[in-house]
Write a structure and sequence with these properties.
Number of helices: 4
CATH class of the largest domain: Mainly Beta
CATH architecture of the largest domain: Sandwich
CATH topology of the largest domain: Immunoglobulin-like
CATH superfamily of the largest domain: Cupredoxins -  blue copper proteins
Strand order of the largest sheet: 10-9-12-17-14-15
Bound molecules: CU-O-CU linkage
Shape: globular
Length: 535
C-alpha cells in the first residue's frame, strides 16, 4: 500500500459552452476535474485549498470511509464548509473496494461543475474478473447551464418552484455537435480495430437519469458502483445520478465514426427533457469528414427498458467476491417518498415545493451533525426519525394534492452497531409519482427487491433475491414503485442518505443515520483531524 497525495485548488475559471462564456468553479482549473487514481489499500491525502468566493466541501462518492466520516464531505453533515482562503486535508484509506467511483462538491448545487472520477485499481497482481481491456476511458456524463447555477437556483427558490432545466447534457464536459456552437466541444475517443475498451461511465448530472448507448456497438456490463457484476450484454445502459457503470466495448465493427450518446430517462410528463449529448468513437485512420452514425436510445419514457435493465443486474458473487447479503433483519424501516407544499412567506406565491421522507422535510443544521454527535452537542438534531410513515394510505393510487404540508425537522434515525437493516423506500403519488435515485453514504447496500405499486409486506419479501442481488451505493426507486435494500450497520458515524436529484435534495429529500459505536477498540469513530473546518 502506498500514500497518494493530491492538491485540489478550488478556483474560478471562465469556460464557454453553447456560445456562452461564464465563470465556473473548478478544481485546478479543470472541467471536469482531475481523476483520482488510487489502488485498493492505499492511504489518500487530498488537500483542498479554497481560492473561490464560495464555501466548499467535497464528497468521495461511494468510498466507505470506515470509522472516518470526517473525510466523507457532505457540508453540515460530516463537516462544516471549507471557507475562502482555507484548506482541509481529506485523509482516508481505501480498503476492501476497487472500481469506478467519483468525487463531487457536496454543498448547494456546486457539483454542477466540481466533479471528477475516482479510479480504484485492484491490488497489485490482482486481475479483473473479466477479460483484460487494452485501454480504459472515463466517461463522465453531466449537465450544463448557460447561466450561473447558483443564480438559477436562487431564482427557483424565490418562486418556490423548480429552477430552470439545464441547457445541455455533456460527455466529459462537452455537449457534442447536436448542440449549437459545440462542434469543437465534442469528446472523441480513438479506437483500434480488434481491441477491447473498458469504459468507466459516471452519471454526474444533477437532475437526470440517463440512457447511454454507442452506435453499432454492444456493451458488456461488468461492474456497477465499484462492485463486480455478472457480465451481460446490452445495447444501452441506464444510469442514475450518483451511479457508476463499467462496460467492456469491443472495436470490431466496420472502421468508421460512431456516436455515443446520452439522453434522459423520464417517465413522468413533468418536464420534457430530451436533449442528447453526443461524443465520438472513432476508428484509427478514419478521417474526421466521415459523418458519424447515431445510436438508438430507448425512448425517454421507456419504463419497460428501465425495469428490464435494472432486473439484469446481479452481483458477481464469486468465491473471491462473495455477496454477503444479510439474511436476518434486525431493524425494518419503511420510508415513503413524497413531494409537498409548505408555506413560504418570502416566495412569490406564498408557498414552496418541498420533498419528504415519512412526511419529514429535512432541515439542514448549522453545525456538522457528526461533530454534534461525537462531541455530544445538544440541540442540533434528534434521533426520533420514525421507522414508518405517520399514516398508511394507498401510496401509489390517485394523486394526492390535499394536505401537502410536511414537518420540517432535523430528525435522524439511531441504528445499533452491526445490526442488519432493511429499508423499503416507497415512492408515493403525493403530488406526483417520480423516480428517485437514493444514495447512502458510508455503505454499500444490497438491492434485494423492487416492484411497481405498493410494497406488500405479506407477499413481496418472499420474492427477494438474497443470493446475488446487486450491491451498490445509489439505487433508483422506480416511479410509483418501491425498492428494498439491506445492509449491515458496521460503520459507526453519521451517514447521509438522500435523493441524488439535486433538486429533490434541496427540497429536503434527505435524512441521516446515526450508527452507534461498537464495543471493540476498533469499532468506534476515529478522532477528528486537527484541521477539520470549524463552523
Ligand atoms: Cu454523491 Cu451525498 O452524494
Amino acid at each position: 500500500a502506498a500514500v497518494k497525495k493530491y492538491q485540489f485548488d478550488i478556483q474560478v475559471r471562465n469556460v464557454s459552452r453553447l456560445c456562452h462564456a461564464k465563470p465556473i468553479v473548478t478544481v485546478n482549473g479543470m472541467f471536469p476535474g482531475p481523476t483520482v487514481y488510487v489502488r485498493e489499500g492505499d492511504r489518500v491525502l487530498i488537500n483542498v485549498t479554497n481560492y473561490a468566493q464560495y464555501n466548499m466541501s467535497i464528497h468521495w462518492h461511494g468510498l466507505k470511509q470506515y470509522r472516518n466520516g470526517w473525510a466523507d464531505g457532505p457540508a453540515y453533515i460530516t463537516q462544516c464548509p471549507i471557507k475562502t482562503g482555507n484548506s482541509y486535508v481529506y485523509d482516508f484509506n481505501v480498503t476492501g473496494q476497487r472500481g469506478t467511483l467519483w468525487w463531487h462538491a457536496h454543498i448547494f448545487w456546486l457539483r454542477a461543475t466540481v466533479y471528477g472520477a475516482i479510479v480504484v485499481m485492484p491490488k497489485q497482481g490482482t486481475p479483473f474478473p473479466f477479460p483484460q481491456p487494452d485501454r480504459e476511458v472515463n466517461i463522465l456524463l453531466g449537465e450544463w447551464w448557460n447561466n450561473d447555477v447558483e443564480e438559477v437556483v436562487k431564482q427557483g427558490n424565490k418562486l418556490g418552484l423548480p429552477p430552470n432545466m439545464s441547457d445541455a447534457h455533456t460527455i466529459n464536459g462537452k455537449p457534442g455537435p447536436l448542440f449549437p456552437c459545440s462542434e469543437k466541444h465534442t469528446f472523441a475517443m480513438e479506437v483500434e480495430q480488434g481491441k477491447t475498451y473498458l469504459l468507466r461511465i459516471i452519471n454526474a448530472a444533477l437532475n437526470d437519469e440517463l440512457f447511454f448507448a454507442i452506435a453499432g456497438h454492444n456493451m458488456t456490463v461488468v461492474e456497477v458502483d465499484a462492485v463486480y457484476t455478472k457480465p451481460f450484454t446490452t445495447q444501452a445502459i441506464l444510469i442514475a445520478p450518483g451511479q457508476t457503470t463499467n462496460v467492456l466495448v469491443q472495436a470490431t465493427q466496420v472502421p468508421s465514426r460512431y456516436f455515443m450518446a446520452a439522453r434522459p430517462f423520464m417517465d413522468v410528463p413533468l418536464s420534457i427533457d430530451n436533449k442528447t449529448a453526443a461524443a465520438i468513437l472513432q476508428y484509427k485512420g478514419i478521417p474526421n469528414t466521415v459523418l458519424p452514425i447515431l445510436p438508438q436510445l430507448p425512448a425517454p419514457n421507456d419504463t419497460a427498458f428501465a425495469l428490464s435493465y435494472n432486473g439484469k443486474l446481479r452481483s458477481l458473487n464469486s468465491p473471491r467476491f462473495p455477496a454477503n447479503v444479510p439474511l436476518k433483519v434486525d431493524r425494518h424501516l419503511f420510508y415513503t417518498i413524497g413531494l409537498g407544499m409548505n408555506p413560504c412567506p418570502t416566495c412569490l406565491n406564498g408557498t414552496r415545493l418541498t420533498a419528504s421522507l415519512n412526511n419529514i422535510t429535512f432541515v439542514m443544521p448549522q453545525t456538522g451533525l457528526l461533530q454534534a454527535h461525537y462531541f455530544n452537542i445538544k440541540g442540533v438534531f434528534t434521533t426520533d426519525f420514525p421507522d414508518r410513515p405517520p399514516t398508511s394510505f394507498n401510496y401509489t393510487g390517485a394523486p394526492l394534492t390535499a394536505n401537502l404540508g410536511t414537518t420540517l425537522a432535523t430528525r435522524l434515525s439511531r441504528i445499533a452497531f452491526n445490526s442488519t437493516v432493511e429499508l423499503v423506500l416507497q415512492d408515493t403519488n403525493l403530488l406526483t409519482v417520480e423516480s428517485h435515485p437514493f444514495h447512502l453514504h458510508g455503505y454499500n447496500f444490497f438491492v434485494v427487491g423492487t416492484g411497481v405499486g405498493n410494497f406488500d409486506p405479506s407477499k413481496d419479501p418472499a420474492k427477494f433475491n438474497l443470493v446475488d442481488p446487486p450491491e451498490r451505493n445509489t439505487v433508483g426507486v422506480p416511479t410509483g414503485g418501491w425498492t428494498a435494500i439491506r445492509f449491515r450497520a458496521d460503520n459507526p458515524g453519521v451517514w447521509f442518505m438522500h435523493c441524488h436529484l439535486e433538486l429533490h435534495t434541496s427540497w429536503g429529500l434527505k435524512t441521516a443515520f446515526v450508527v452507534e459505536n461498537g464495543k471493540g477498540a476498533d469499532q468506534s469513530i476515529l478522532p477528528p483531524p486537527k484541521d477539520l473546518p470549524p463552523c
